[in-house]
Structure formats: C-alpha cells, structure tokens
Amino acid sequence: MVVTSFFVLQLLFLPPFAALALDFHVVKPHDLAFGARHRPAKLAPLGHGHNRLSLSLFHRDALPGRNFSGHRHRLDRLLERDSRRVVTLTRRLSTARYHVDDFGSEVVSGLEEGSGEYFVRVGVGVPPRDQYLVVDSGSDIVWIQCRPCSQCYAQSEPVFDPAESASFAGVACGSPICGLLLSGASAAAGCHAGDCRYAVSYGDGSSTKGTLALETLTFGTSAVRDVAIGCGHSNRGLFVGAAGVLGLGWGPMSFVGQLGGQAGGAFSYCLVSRGSDAPTGSLVFGRTAAVPVGAVWVPLLRNLRAPSFYYVRLLGLGVGGVRLPVLEDVFQLTEEGEGGVVMDTGTAVTRLPDAAYAALRDAFGAATAGLPRAPGVSIFDTCYSLFGYQSVRVPTVSFYFAGGTILTLPARNFLIPVDDMATFCFAFAPSSSGLSIMGNIQQEGIQITFDAANGFVGFGPNTC
C-alpha cells in the first residue's frame, strides 16, 4: 500500500533540469518557510461519557513571549536542542536503564532551551491550574515542578502548589504504584519518610527528583482522576518554559499506559506544519477518535532494553519514486537492542546511519543538480540558494516500511529554510551511532496513530 502525503502547487517558474524519470514536487519556496506564530487555540470542548480526550498541539515557538530575529536564530536554537536530544537518546539506549542520582490540552512546542518541541496545555489539580507540558513519545513518566522547590527552572506559569489542590494525594512507599515505578526502566524509586520518591536523570544532564503522587489532570472539560505523576521538587536542565513532561511512551507509567483500556490503548497526533494556516496540531486519546478510516499500518517493534520507545521496521529509502540501494540491515533492530528506527516527537531532524544518509543525500543532490547550491549550515551539508525563485521542482523522498507501506513526504518535511535569504537545506543528518531517529520535521502534517494495545503505528490518508 502507498501513502502519498504531499503538496502540489502551481508551477510558476521552472529552472532547467536534465531529463529525469523521477517523481517530483513542484513547490514555492515561500510555502516551505516557517509560518507566523499563533496564539494557542482553546481546547476543544468534550462531552462527558466519551472514552476520548482531544487537545490542541502547539509548536514550541507558539508559546507566549517567544521573539525571534529570523530563521537563522530559530534554526540555531532548534539544532542546539536537537543535538542534546540525540545525545540523550543515544545514551539511554546504550545502557539498560537511566542513570539516576542517589536520593539525598493543548500541545505547544517547546522549551526555551533543550529538548521538547511540542507542548500541550493541561489543568493540574482541583481546581485545575493550567500548565504547559512537553509531549514526549520517548518518556514513561508524567511529572511537573512542585512547591516547595529546592531547585526549579523558570517556567511560563506559576509553579504548581500541591497544598492548593483538593485532589492531590501522596503515594506510600509500599504501594503497588511505587513498586511499578521501581520495576520500570525509565526512573528510580526510593523511600523517604514513608513517601514514594522518584528520580529521572536524562542523558543530557537534565533531571527531576521528587515525590510520586496521584492527581487529577484536566483536558478541556474532561478530567482524568488518579493519574500517577512525579511532583518534582528538584529539577534542572533543558525544560525552561514548560512545567514538566507528559510521557506518552510504551511503558505502564506513561499517560497512555495509565489510561489503559479507557482509551482503547490508542492515541494519535498531528504536528502542525510550518507555513500552515492552522494555528495548532492535535493530540487525541481514544480508539474511536484516534484511529482514522483509511490509515495504513506498520508493525511496531519492542526493544526490551528500551521498552518506552516506539520502534518501526524501516526497510529502505527512496528519492523520486526510486528505491535506493541501501541494505535493509542498516535499519535492523538487533536481538541485543542495538540499531533500529525510533519514532520520536522530541527530535526534530531525522538521523540515519552514515551509509543510508550518504545514499539519500547523494541521490537527492543528483536530482537537484539544476538548483543553485549554498554552503552547508551546521549539521546540514546539502543546501540551496533559492532567492528570486517563485517555485522549484524537487524530487519526492519516501520511507519504505515492512509490509509494503511507502510513506512519501511533503516537500516542506525535508526542505527547510535556514535564514531570511531564501537558503534551504535538506533536513536529514547522519547518526552518531547505528540508531535511526524519525524526527518531528518529517512527521509534520501527517496524522500518526499509535495503537499500543495491538502493536501498530498508522499513517492517516490525509494531511492535517
């Protein structure tokens, strides 16, 4: 089966090309650019009694007070965050569990610094106090900063005070929930004065420590009671702006895992595309709402060394509708848990092993030989100067998955602006290890559904 998600725009000017029997997009450089920032949209009203939750997703740059001097400033910040995120994932997957220190909605993207590209607006406690949480498909823990705070970073909203919530309840050390945290692979648990304590230390040096609690989270008009969250009293690192993290990983302590059968084990998201007229994307929990009619499905793989992550079986890559001569073994997840392909909302730029990246870059470069090249920028080594062009023709880029599914990307999902002088770069990069990461730039505008209960990821038939 074939999924073709792309934009076809009117051809206004076509630079000379050699005759190539390839599939192409015809695009305007303006339509590939970052769109204007929007205010967060209000959460969609939901009726009680429906087993679904729906929120708006926002890119990090949509947060109030975000000011930029141009594409280059935004790109520099993006790639700085991205490199730290990739280091985090690589370190996490190189060991059996997190390194931890001893003990002593609406979705909007972003953090002032560090990992986390998309945010959701969630009410915490009773009465609900609105907080921005990072949406992280690679994390199993839901946590927020809490008072009293021995060490807290700056966030957009006041730090949550458990004493002001009627629904906050601490978790005892001997409770099954504390035991579940202790047996997990994404955090450490311990005891202090009878309270269950948690600690998570990420590979980039950021961390959160505090007590485990049960609390009510409100999404629009729907409240979910008794969600196990980390109440962080000592937090540091790359989470400036957000109050914490909404973990959507495959483990039992993630928000998806805690919803269990209430949401049918399924959730979907659509990350709003740059340049789109839509101010926000969407995040939906619940099988009825999350599973689109006409989606095609790819099996998920489980890595016992990293059970939180959603791995997919990628077989190959294509340029212009032609599959590249890249061995499937390049993308294989080994029995030892090495390699493989992770779908991650917190990484922006897709990383590929050296051999796969070189083949993709060279094929794309050969098919765009008629476009004026520009010097490389940061991690991007394939860039173009499109100043003065009303439209250009670029080859399609495709992922070939197990089961015969082919996902063809929109042009704006692989050719991105890097400055205000119409310089665009090919948005892929080589991996520092055998791990491949499918980043959020390549996921933008496509409805993506994770059916965790049955072990599949689906790609919707339409862009969103």
TrEMBL record:
The active site is at D136, D344. SUPFAM superfamilies: Acid proteases (SSF50630). Residues 1-21 form the signal peptide. Keywords: Aspartyl protease, DNA-binding, Hydrolase, Protease, Signal. It comes from the Eukaryota. InterPro entries: Aspartic_peptidase_A1, CND41-like, PEPTIDASE_A1, Peptidase_aspartic_dom_sf, TAXi_C, TAXi_N. GO terms for molecular function: aspartic-type endopeptidase activity; DNA binding. GO terms for biological process: proteolysis. Residues 118-460 form the Peptidase A1 domain. Pfam families: TAXi_C, TAXi_N. Belongs to the peptidase A1 family. This is Peptidase A1 domain-containing protein. It comes from Musa acuminata subsp. malaccensis (Wild banana).
